[in-house]
UniProtKB/TrEMBL annotation:
It comes from the Bacteria. Residues 364-523 form the Helicase ATP-binding domain. GO terms for biological process: DNA recombination; DNA repair. It catalyses: ATP + H2O = ADP + phosphate + H(+); Couples ATP hydrolysis with the unwinding of duplex DNA by translocating in the 3'-5' direction. This is ATP-dependent DNA helicase RecG. Plays a critical role in recombination and DNA repair. Helps process Holliday junction intermediates to mature products by catalyzing branch migration. Has replication fork regression activity, unwinds stalled or blocked replication forks to make a HJ that can be resolved. Has a DNA unwinding activity characteristic of a DNA helicase with 3'-5' polarity. Gene3D superfamilies: Nucleic acid-binding proteins, P-loop containing nucleotide triphosphate hydrolases. Its EC number is 5.6.2.4. InterPro entries: ATP-dep_DNA_helicase_RecG, DEAD/DEAH_box_helicase_dom, Helicase_ATP-bd, Helicase_C-like, NA-bd_OB-fold, P-loop_NTPase, RecG/Mfd, RecG_dom3_C. It is an enzyme of class 5 (isomerase). Belongs to the helicase family. RecG subfamily. CDD domains: DEXHc_RecG, RecG_wedge_OBF. Keywords: ATP-binding, DNA damage, DNA recombination, DNA repair, DNA-binding, Helicase, Hydrolase, Isomerase, Nucleotide-binding.
């Protein structure tokens, strides 16, 4: 980019601001922020516009004229205010912005809401249900089929608790009656807290398995909740939310209901005309129907609108900020001899794909434009080696490098690898993690600041205030999506070149849509000699075979992963996940009596998880049972079998990533998928994984085969803005949103027109959840 072009880029918004009366409304997020980005080559302009937002309009105009003069651009004479467009008023804050305790929440309510990230009524309405349950017609007890699962509504007649003498099992029982007077007994095992939650005479909604033995009719409860007085939990399609601690579905449901009652009409940021043309429901309808849908059709309309909004704001943001993409970054000299040195020292030949992406990266590093590149490659495709080459070039240019990983154990793994690649070449690599002792950290800080360290590998610890790089030239971010935006921003303050590594196989067309002008490099080839993971699909009936095979491998000294999804029917309960994981571990231990089995679940603290993974790595035990996706990217060299229970509950791309965890030690690795249902659709989907080990092929098939209808995508994208939208199945909505965003901005590049003010405000409100591009 030439100096002239840089000047033009910067002058345009300044002129526009001047022309619209210096109201600081031209740029979402404020003019100063934009200037800070665009004006890096012109410190004299940055200085001039410091504190811009706080100035009076007259002072602002004077500064802008001066700035344009310094850039050698003649300012157009300020137009008289009368001639400018109608003054743009900030839309007034609406009732949506009221704090959430504007509605009655009960004791401790506001804290509970805060634990869900809900502060305003708006936040609450945008806290979507995870799924819905159709409880429009619940069967009476007489209609229940023995052996089948059922949901019923019933009155609690009495309750009791007994302990079985030998097994020491605690049984809670409740005698229930339906509204016809039929009776049965609901039974809970080892859940002492249930006793306190049952009230005699109260109505409850119960889901469980119905059994009949002689005259005894039982319901083994999986899930229950109080019906509440407002008929919100029965007789309709009922929302089911993700809950925090000490809160119930009924409470959250009631709160959302009250919020909807309190708000007359949710204002719609989309101009009416546009909405009509796109055939979208209005926002008020969409928000009411996503929580309390009147029918499946209404729910579908609501979803369509809310997904559209997610993608529209994402696209608007990408397009609005891409103007800042030609930022000046680092300029590196890439010497042929340095490259040779690195490649000679590498213990293997790079693949053609590694060479190609390395060339792409080096071209970015040579140019003065700030590198913003996404490096995609399947697990084990050799991304880290490529990153190491780039870090080496940075070090040879006397610039520092950083590699940030989402967990301690991943950071340690990268540290070991980078040390292996770079230490022999005289590059000083250091590790910095949160769990290090204060004194140790201090010494690392000092070495970073003095430049004694060339490459620092770490976790969030890298972005603490105390870390001051002498000169950060290249930042590599592994599995970027695990980090919050502000955190990344902190690392990127000095405008280093940025390389983001991800193993998520987003089909390329979608990646481009999503990341706007972020460049994408793909490693589409595996290192030679890599043995593909042998994958078999089994059904429940042959589940024992899977564990027999596990037993054999453990006998040979190998380790095994067992992964299971959350149990869908009961996951609304706080302890359900822990229980499900523990139960599965118990089953596994029973099938593998000689094996040492440990369990990992989502409710464990990050440090606990790291410690457990570390012990697994050290072969302290044989089988890791997990109901959470195993820490992405961790190498467990001894593990060469993964058994995935209820594999149909995972997305294909996710299964593929999971499978990538095994065989890291170079031995033949195996993956056994156990299908919990054997419908043709399920088997067809899972066969894709059985047949192919190509991540991109798998992702594309996933896109083809996955029907709509899942309320929440599998969230493989990891984009913080997408609550409902799914990158792989919502292609049509993405395209419609993208073309709409383009049209809006072509007509009104800085969203200054009155009819776009609501849209702009919404964009600002969603500002914290931004796509990747904005921060780079
Ligand atoms: P990723 O980060 O993409 O998951 P890594 O860079 O960690 O992959 O590489 C996985 C393993 O493959 C490492 O043990 C690495 O040493 C090895 N490896 C990387 N590139 C090659 C190659 N071209 N030939 C042989 N082995 C390679
Ligand atoms: Mg890796």
């Amino acid at each position: 980019m030439t100096r002239r072009e840089l000047i033009q880029r910067l002058a345009r918004p300044l002129e526009r601001e001047l022309a619209t009366g210096c109201r600081d409304r031209v740029v979402a997020g404020g003019l100063e922020k934009l200037v800070h980005n665009l004006a890096r080559p012109f410190p004299e302009v940055i200085e001039l516009l410091e504190g811009y937002a706080a100035l009076e309009p007259d002072a602002r105009c004077a500064r802008l004229r001066e700035a344009l003069a310094r850039l050698g651009v003649a300012a157009a004479p300020a137009r008289a205010p009368a001639k400018t467009q109608a003054p743009v008023e900030e839309p007034p804050a609406t009732e949506l912005d009221a704090p959430v305790d504007a509605i009655p929440l009960g004791p401790g309510g506001p804290q509970k809401m805060r634990s869900l990230g809900v502060r305003t009524l708006r936040d609450l309405l945008f806290y979507y249900p995870r799924r819905h349950e159709d409880r429009r017609t619940l069967p009476g007890f007489a209609a229940l089929a023995p052996g089948a699962k059922a949901t019923v509504v019933a009155t609690v007649l009495s309750k009791s608790q007994v302990k079985t003498p030998r097994k020491k099992m605690l049984i809670t029982q409740a005698r229930l009656a339906d509204d016809r007077g039929h009776k049965l007994t609901a039974v809970w095992f080892n859940q002492p807290w249930v006793m306190g939650q049952l009230r005699e005479g109260e109505k409850i909604v119960v889901t469980g398995r119905y059994t009949v033995r002689g005259r005894v009719r039982n319901l083994a409860v999986e899930y229950f909740e109080a019906e509440g007085g407002e008929q919100l939990s029965t007789g309709r399609i009922v929302p089911v939310y993700s809950l925090g601690e000490r809160m119930s579905q009924a409470w959250l449901r009631r709160s959302v209901w009250r919020a909807l009652e309190a708000i007359k009409e949710v204002p719609d940021p989309l101009p009416e005309e546009l909405r009509q043309e796109l055939g979208l429901a209005d926002l008020d309808f969409a928000l009411r129907q996503i929580h309390f849908p009147e029918s499946e059709q209404h729910l579908a309309r609501a979803l369509e609108r809310l997904k559209f909004d997610e993608f529209l704001f994402l696209e608007l943001r990408v397009l609005l900020t891409s103007g800042a993409s030609a930022l000046v970054g680092q300029i590196f000299e890439v010497r042929e001899e340095d490259l040779c040195t690195f490649l000679d020292a590498l213990p293997f030949e790079p693949t053609a794909a590694q060479r190609r992406v390395l060339d792409e990266i080096l071209a970015d590093m040579r140019s003065e434009r700030q590198m913003a590149r996404l490096l995609q490659g399947d697990v084990g495709s050799g991304k880290t080696a490529v990153a190491a080459a780039a870090l080496y070039v940075a070090a040879r240019n006397q610039k520092q490098g950083a590699l940030m990983a989402p967990t301690e154990i991943l950071a340690k793994q990268h540290f070991a690898n980078l040390t292996r690649y770079l230490w022999p070449l005289g590059v000083r690599v250091e590790l910095l993690t949160g769990s290090m002792k204060a004194g140790e950290k201090k010494r690392v800080y000092a070495r970073i600041e003095s430049g004694e360290v060339d490459v620092v590998v770490g976790t969030h610890a890298l972005i603490q205030k105390e870390v001051r790089f002498r000169e950060l030239g290249l930042a590599v971010i592994d599995e970027e999506h695990r980090f919050g935006v502000m955190q990344r921003r902190a690392l990127l303050q000095g405008r280093p070149d940025v390389l983001v590594m991800t193993a998520t196989p987003i089909p390329r067309s979608l990646a481009l849509t999503l990341y706007g002008d972020l460049e994408v490099s793909v490693i589409d080839e595996m290192p030679p000699g890599r043995k593909p993971v042998k994958t078999r699909l089994l059904t429940q009936r042959s589940r024992k075979d899977a564990y027999a095979f596990a037993r054999k491998l453990i006998g040979e000294g190998h380790q095994v992963f067992v992964v299971a999804p959350l149990i869908e029917e009961s996951d609304a309960e706080v302890m359900a996940e822990v229980r499900a994981a523990t139960e599965l571990a118990g089953e596994v231990a029973a099938m593998l009596p000689e094996a040492r089995v440990e369990v990992l679940h989502g409710r464990m603290k990050a440090e606990e998880k790291d410690a457990l993974m570390e012990r697994f790595r050290n072969r302290d035990f044989d089988v890791l049972v997990s109901t959470t996706v195993i820490e992405v990217g961790v190498d467990i060299p001894g593990a060469n079998l993964m058994i995935i229970e209820n594999a149909e509950r995972f997305g294909l791309a996710q299964l593929h990533q999971l499978r990538g965890r095994v065989g890291r030690g170079g031995e033949q690795a195996y993956c056994i998928l156990i299908a919990g249902d054997t419908s043709r659709k399920t088997m067809q989907r899972l066969r894709v994984i059985e047949k192919s080990t190509d991540g991109f092929y798998v992702a594309e098939q996933d896109l083809k085969l996955r029907g709509p209808g899942e309320l929440r995508g599998t969230r493989q994208s990891g984009l913080p803005d997408l609550q409902l939208g799914d990158l792989t199945s919502d292609v049509e909505i993405i395209e419609s949103a993208r073309s709409t965003a383009k049209r809006i901005l072509e007509a009104d590049p800085y969203l200054t027109e009155p009819e776009h003010q609501a849209l702009k405000r919404e964009l600002q409100l969603r500002g914290e959840a931004v796509g990747l591009r904005e921060i780079i």
